[in-house]
TrEMBL record:
Annotated protein name in UniProt: LOB domain-containing protein 12
Organism: Sesamum angustifolium
Family from the record: Belongs to the LOB domain-containing protein family.
Location of the LOB domain: 8-109
InterPro entries from the UniProt entry: LOB
Upper lineage: Eukaryota, Viridiplantae, Streptophyta, Embryophyta, Tracheophyta
Length: 170
């Protein structure tokens, strides 16, 4: 499986100027038509380290490992100090800023809705007042303090102090 079609050496063997063997660990992951991919990884990690890492992994995990190595190497070349961590930190900062912008936008929407509701409230109250006046409706108020039921608290037995304790009374 060494090399690619037509016995062309893989990108790693080409860069390292060696013959690509049939069992070349690099060949499936670094084809000759993408030489920069291996060059970046080689520059950061070294061919020997990459070879050791890939040989320790099962075949089905190697492609993901190579993808991660390429990403980390690219990030490390862009930001030699922080590498991927710098990119992740930058993205987390952007997420936090966007979440704050979203919260502000939601608050603004709520504020506008409340203003609209307050503008509708006087009209609604006026309509209710006109309706009750036209129908000669007089609200009936009932006195439930004389209601006797052991399961219902009425009168003085129901107050904030008895419910929440004396420290919660305002």
């Amino acid at each position: 499986m060494g090399g690619t079609a037509g016995n062309t050496p893989c990108a790693s063997c080409k860069l390292l100027r060696r013959r690509c063997a049939k069992d070349c660990v690099f060949a499936p992951h670094f084809p000759s038509d993408h030489p920069q991919k291996f060059a970046i990884v080689h520059k950061v990690f070294g061919a020997s380290n990459i070879s050791k890492m890939l040989q320790e992994l099962p075949l089905h995990q190697r492609a993901d490992a190579v993808s991660s190595l390429v990403y980390e190497a690219t990030a490390r070349l862009r930001d030699p100090v922080y590498g991927c961590t710098g990119a992740i930190s930058c993205l987390q900062s952007q997420v936090a800023q966007l979440q704050m912008q979203l919260a502000l936008a939601q608050a603004e929407i709520l504020y506008i809705q409340m203003q609209q509701d307050q503008q509708l409230l006087p009209d609604t109250l006026q309509h209710l007042n006109e309706t009750t006046t036209q129908n000669n409706y007089t609200p009936q108020f009932h006195n439930f303090t004389s209601f006797k039921n052991n399961n219902v608290f009425c009168g003085d037995s129901f107050n904030k102090e008895s419910m929440y304790g004396s420290d919660m009374v305002s």
